[in-house]
From TrEMBL:
Residues 7-19, 343-359 have a biased composition (Basic and acidic residues). Keywords: Methyltransferase, Transferase. PROSITE patterns: N6_MTASE. InterPro entries: DNA_methylase_N6_adenine_CS (IPR002052), N5-glutamine_MTase (IPR050320), SAM-dependent_MTases_sf (IPR029063), Small_mtfrase_dom (IPR007848). It comes from Streptomyces violaceorubidus. This is Class I SAM-dependent methyltransferase.
Amino acid sequence: MSTIHWTDNDTPRSARWHSESAAPLPRRTVVADDRMKADDAYRQACEGTALLWQGDFHNARQLLRAMGHRVDRKPPGPGTSPSESFHLHRRGSGHRARVLGKLLVLLDEDYTLGLRRAPDVRQACREAYGPATGPTAVSLRELLGVIGAHQWRRRGVEVPALGARIHPHYGVFAPVRGEYVDLVARTPLPPAARHGLTTSTAFDLGTGTGVLAAVLAHRGIRRVVATDISPRALACAGENVHRLALSDRIEVSSDPGLYPEGRAHLVVCNPPWLPARPTGPVEQGVYDPDGTMLHGFLTGLSAHLRPGGEGWLVLSDLAEHLGLRTRQQLLDAIGAAGLHVVGRSDTRPRHPRAKDTSDPLHAARSAETTSLWRLAPAP
């Protein structure tokens, strides 16, 4: 367990250090309050000094925004290729996160945030971090994410394909991009599943919130096994399944492998879309450095399909537009796994970033297509 140390009125203090993005322990920590100027805070943060805030909570948020404005004054320049632009953008995002992550707050041993005008964050922190284990220092930026996740969890995300809400947990990717859910909801089921709905089985690999498993059960699949390697995702999916009264149809499995035991008429996988390194728990739903989950799904599919079954790969081509993967590499991986493409359904993104011309990756995002690839063992 890492411990952060600082001095308060000549008294040595310490607390547990926690960072969901695995940020290293600050080299130096000083106390800061409402007298701190944004330029001074920004300079010290860039030098690696952490600022433990003891002033007003809303002033801390304003300071964080002011530091962000100073980081954004020097955005990364465009690259000579889409892939270089992407890596420069990721590097700039990492620098921004490191600088803003230097503004810290102290949570008491029961997760109370003892700042003036601070909200009650105890429940949000228990949901994200589990039981409290003593005074803990976290970045304000991370804590704001924890608070936001608590609000998402309480309100839920409306999923038209279900006519219900899915409630994401902290660290679990929320189904805010509904186009991939709609693809799974409207693509015709394989004959092997459609002709035997009362006995049909489907696997949902990397279930996350459990939204796709719920869609499959909603479509009539009798038994759905939902897997994930994340304990947070398993807890989230289990809660959503119970909330939707689908516990008799969906089994949330903690099997350590990607696939559960047995075979299914339908295997659905929505792997991370971009081969890049994630910097935090939520990003694990988007970035996978070596495409490990994608290739694991492809290589294991034939051995886990029943006769006449299909595998549904839900994948964006954003990586292709960014120069991180080619279409031919994807087709080669499908062929190398002994599979062939039965069909494909496409849709265009509806999220606001696809139309944001100020986004440095706008050209790639505006050309993005999300596809559901229907795969089966090669004849």
